[in-house]
Amino acid sequence: xxxxxxxxxxxxxxxxxxxxxxxxxxxxxxxxxxxxxxxxxxxxxxxxxxxxxxxxxxxxxxxxxxxxxxxxxxxxxxxxxxxxxxxxxxxxxxxxxxxxxxxxxxxxxxxxxxxxxxxxxxxxxxxxxxxxxxxxxxxxxxxxxxxxxxxxxxxxxxxxxxxxxxxxxxxxxxxxxxxxxxxxxxxxxxxxxxxxxxxxxxxxxxxxxxxxxxxxxxxxxxxxxxxxxxxxxxxxxxxxxxxxxxxxxxxxxxxxxxxxxxxxxxxxxxxxxxxxxxxxxxxxxxxxxxxxxxxxxxxxxxxxxxxxxxxxxxxxxxxxxxxxxxxxxxxxxxxxxxxxxxxxxxxxxxxxxxxxxxxxxxxxxxxxxxxxxxxxxxxxxxxxxxxxxxxxxxxxxxxxxxxxxxxxxxxxxxxxxxxxxxxxxxxxxxxxxxxxxxxxxxxxxxxxxxxxxxxxxxxxxxxxxxxxxxxxxxxxxxxxxxxxxxxxxxxxxxxxxxxxxxxxxxxxxxxxxxxxxxxxxxxxxxxxxxxxxxxxxxxxxxxxxxxxxxxxxxxxxxxxxxxxxxxxxxxxxxxxxxxxxxxxxxxxxxxxxxxxxxxxxxxxxxxxxxxxxxxxxxxxxxxxxxxxxxxxxxxxxxxxxxxxxxxxxxxxxxxxxxxxxxxxxxxxxxxxxxxxxxxxxxxxxxxxxxxxxxxxxxxxxxxxxxxxxxxxxxxxxxxxxxxxxxxxxxxxxxxxxxxxxxxx
Amino acid sequence: xxxxxxxxxxxxxxxxxxxxxxxxxxxxxxxxxxxxxxxxxxxxxxxxxxxxxxxxxxxxxxxxxxxxxxxxxxxxxxxxxxxxxxxxxxxxxxxxxxxxxxxxxxxxxxxxxxxxxxxxxxxxxxxxxxxxxxxxxxxxxxxxxxxxxxxxxxxxxxxxxxxxxxxxxxxxxxxxxxxxxxxxxxxxxxxxxxxxxxxxxxxxxxxxxxxxxxxxxxxxxxxxxxxxxxxxxxxxxxxxxxxxxxxxxxxxxxxxxxxxxxxxxxxxxxxxxxxxxxxxxxxxxxxxxxxxxxxxxxxxxx
Lengths: 744, 302
Hints:
The structure holds 2 protein chains of 2 kinds. By secondary structure, chain A is α+β, with helices and mostly antiparallel strands. Chain A contains 22 helices and 37 strands. Chain A has a 5-stranded antiparallel sheet. A 4-stranded antiparallel sheet of chain A has the order 13-20-15-18, with no helix packed on it. Chain A has a 4-stranded antiparallel sheet with strand order 22-29-24-27. In chain A, a hairpin with a 7-residue loop joins strand 3 (51-52) and strand 4 (60-61). In chain A, helix 2 (78-93) packs across helix 4 and helix 15 crosses helix 16. By secondary structure, chain B is mostly helical. Chain B has 2 domains: 5-133 and 277-301, no CATH class; 141-274, no CATH class. Chain B has 10 helices and no strands. Chains A and B meet through helix 9, helix 18, strand 31 and helix 22 of A and helix 3, helix 4 and helix 9 of B.
């Protein structure tokens, strides 16, 4: 990116092109007072308090003025100070000082600036047309008199929360903020999220102290104490007062468990003092096919008989993504976090189960906070920079390497890529990129889940869900430079964005990766085409309503052949440590039973929310539950078809009471059909002696089925024969002209 | 296993083997008196016994379903078609003679195994389709008792809207305690009493206690009027005519419960047919293989 050199208050500074003067000054430690601008909002330049002298005829609002090469900026010259004083004095003349915020928490930004500028009683007359107050909301008090029309609340409501309730109403002296079509706040569509109140620099929007969120088992932290902490310094005192019990201080002794994997929670922890150990306490294995010694013997037997063909994709990731700024190594899933680290973001922001167990290594002090607090402090750029620095230092390298394509990059290049990567935060529903747009970046999912959809005349087709560690954007960069799909955030999402130029540089320097990427992109495109072909095939109403066409693979049992011997169930259990993953019961379609077994859905809802990413699709069809499943049960809840079961396994774990000792505990783990990934054919199908069980691709299967039915309809004699055969059971049914099972 | 076109290669192979065996047997039988101890006789005996062993291995194959030893359906087809060949092979081996007591016993066993196998093949060819069409509400066989408990509990809940169920029917209380979800989730479990005349209420109670409840207690009994679908339809039609329209929905649910009970009964009977023949076929096959081995050792050694 092009760099700009300019001088601010005599100090030469260099910033990226497009940076505003305000940000250039901030980055280099030069403070410019401002009222209408917040770091997390688009600048508007309406208050003009941040006016600076850029050597032009008139002063410029620094928050919207882009820096230019060779620009000489004065932020504190006499001319600037005079103008600023005038602006603030004019604003103060219309401000009911002290306003409600100043009275309660003493941090009205306007009054603070006025005080700093030495402005006492304004020389100008107050307005004579009062704007009034609005107390209709149960939660937020609106004092239009204190409003300085900075629009921060409007941008907070529209841009940050996307609630689009707030706007401007009236004009001239009557101008003010308005809810919906200038309704009283309490009657409007406002959801009382509090964003406007938090954004407001004055006492125009303040809390009524009605809503009190309370966290148990800790010491509430006084607003003053919180404001002493660097990360809370820019947080509105009003907000902290409103959320007095939503952030508490907790003390943990060395060895004490802070949270356990799989537990549901709603808080994040910020370590103030001490160190913690973060690990997976659930032992590996127990859910994968053919584990243990018996599995070895089976595999050996298979090899000896030569009857099996091992499927190639058995890649294990070298690390497990967790809800913290570190990843856990697969072989030794333990890591350490220390002062200044945050963990539990996904649990807090999106209510996912805890992804790991956290134990205090030393005596610890930490802040436990609810979502609203975390959300607000994460907008603080200082904290974000610190968290991001931690992430870059500890996990970004690993995350980049988890992308199989990047695994062969040189460490130097990974390092340079990591330093250039941008971290992007998004909320539920935010569109990351749209189909047809120019592709300008490659993305890696750091937190949360995204949905990839392709737009078609009949509606959107979900191509995939990606969770932590997933990546997208390479197809557009490699192909014609346009996005081939739309990517949307499903919850609180954080992405690592690698600029298109850096990405292309990587391809130039590492041609092998370019080749591999092209192959992957082609494979994904082909996969998408297959999905598309699948949904544009036949439409059988009953199957559509049962969601069967949305599956990739159905276990169908031909009930006219099945003798109900349950060999399929036994084979499944035998292949999976005694736990069957199929139930010979389910929906019926004609003479077929759709057994209760994973359908490998095209739109696998089960994969959304897994806190450790253990349920995933490898590069092939099957959805597998990896052996680091923490047993939270979210996938089982998410599966609309009841095809994922939680099964208790007795496992040996470390006995915390006896160092070095072990104890047996029962741990649930999710189990689901993995199509016997180790074998060429699912065991249930392989073991059916009656040729009744078949794994089929539903679209092809029912296409042939429908053709067969049409042929039957066109041939009444055949239908009569078949009907007679079915009714009496005395005539063997003629085989279908084209056996639908050949579709598999 | 349904015997369909996919069996054609196996059938041809079996016919070829039979043809070859027959082609060898005819000149052998015309030239000399066939004996089990002769070379051709021993070849037929070994072939027949080998086929018996192969057919018997299907059971062992099923014990290790995950082992990649060939698809189970191939083993099953081999079992059926080679199993069919055992009888002619052994007949060729013995020269159609029953011999002494052991060989006579063996021959009897072989014929019984052969016939039971044929019966089993026929049953497994036809009965699955019958079960599919006759038992649309089929459940897992082992779950039938539990489903029946749930049906009884459901019936108990339903009739509480018609009359007061006396506490003297302990089964109902027990069943209610172990009940599953209601047939109609929108309907309250206990339900409010439907308004009707006292006489109607007493009549409904009497019918339930005298006819429906005994059937639900013992749904396998053929004596109940509700055990027969046609009679049950007539019974409920008559009941509907006597009861106010407000109760018809409950009566329809009760009728459905009875129908489900009948289907479960049907499923149980068909299931027993499907698998009951194995109780004859498997022990006889084991005995045949064991005694056949004894016969081979005795005949060759002594």
